[in-house]
Design a protein that fits this description.
Number of strands of chain A: 0
Number of strands of chain B: 9
CATH topology of the largest domain in chain B: Rossmann fold
Radius of gyration of chain B: 18 Å
Number of domains of chain B: 2
Largest interface: A-B, 21 and 26 residues
Oligomer: heterodimer
Shape of chain B: globular
Shape of chain A: globular
Helix content of chain B: 25-40%
CATH superfamily of chain A: MetI-like
CATH topology of chain A: MetI-like fold
CATH class of chain A: Mainly Alpha
Helix content of chain A: over 70%
Strand order of the largest sheet of chain B: 5-6-7-3-8-9
Structural class of chain B: alpha/beta
Chain lengths: ~260, ~230
Amino acid sequence: MNKKKKALTKIVVIISSVVIFLLIWQIVATSMDSQILLPKVHTVILRLFELFKSDDFLFNVLSTVYRALESFIIIVVFATILGTLAGRYKLLSWFITPVLTVLKTTPVMSVILLAFIWFKTGTVPIFSAFLMGFPIMYMMMEGAVEHLEEEMNQMCYLYGFTKSQKLRHYIIPTLAKPFSLGAKQTLSMVWKVVVAAEVLTIPKYGVGAKMQFAQIQLETAEVLAWTLIAILLSAIGDFIFHLIEASIKFVVRRIKEKKAL
Amino acid sequence: MKIVNLSFSYNDTKIFDNFNLDIEENSICTVVGSSGCGKTTLLKLVSNLEKPSGGIIIKCDDEIGAVSYLFQEPRLLRSQTTFSNIDIILKNSIKDKNERKDKVMYYLERVGLLEHRQKYPNELSGGMRQRAAIARAFAYPSNLILMDEPMQGLDISSKYDVLDLFKEMWESDPRTTLFVTHDLRDALMMGDRLVCLGDPNKPKLNLDLKNDKPLSDEKLGYYENLILNSILN
């Protein structure tokens, strides 16, 4: 199968999957005939458009985006530095291992509830997302540094690479892929935890808080509409991330190819 | 190049013990021997990747000379184009960009990769990658080339392409070369001298092949038997 045909097949299959899912939803909702248990697809979509038009829609969305981005940036900075150092220095890795084990095994809800006791409402989602997202990025970077090839280090040594040359031409490009993969996984985790924390802590603005209000009032259509917004936010986040990644790759490749002309 | 009283042990096993070897400048010395006899270790000691417990290695009247190393696998930087893989190693010795570019282009042309210079190592075949590694080895300003079975893993036709290319490059720019191989025929065809390792304190065999070149089939067979007996004993 050629590339173009493969891409087209992929799009068709994805669209078919979405259509089938919506169809099943509509059939089940029609047979149940209950707005509370499962509203019909068009009801949710109409509610979604009403939400778009509401005054505080942007505030709610931007608050969630802000919290997610803040914790994402903090995680990426801290976990990259610590993971890289831990990959290089075993003592640090051993020191962090117990903390990491606790973070990996603690249920998200426990973290959110404890954070709710310790911090202000608005800080809880950021803190919880940090604790849940940190291990993903940290482990990715630690593993990547541990797996830097000794053979390539020897090559750099023998061909007289300076430390900065080795860093620029070997280490950073080698770590770029696991870094990007770790950041991508962290970002999806952050969205989920931030919205979950907002549901429990109910800050003034936030997608999760709005979901909680709707749930209390048994507005299932609105809960689903906000859920769709949360999914959309995560998808847009992934798309922007992919766009940045692809642009960087494209620019770097063009620079290198131009150099070789 | 002189190796004087070289000693090195690995896990309490003496690999070299007061080992001595003289290699004529700008000649190819091939190194053979059974697995684990210290062939790769010798290259690592010469290139300072391993430190000897005793003795000294004098490379071309210079104790810390630069070394070009051809590894079993090409070890090219995956994130760099073929051009950049050579350009990078020249950055410290040639500051002028244009001069450096000319040199890189010259070597890429010599190894037949000029039109592939914008490609990345994963876009090249195994033989092409090893040719890029040869271009890097010759472009690097060194007096010594160390080869650790660089043809291993290549199919038979690529192997001989690479060997012929190396010989051709070497003839126009001869440098002292240590070539480790398992293939006795390659060792005999390529080497001006052949050393068979196995004893920690001296080579089991140290053959001067220069005067016998080109080797007749008869001579080739004779030497092959001699080396095989030496390895097996």
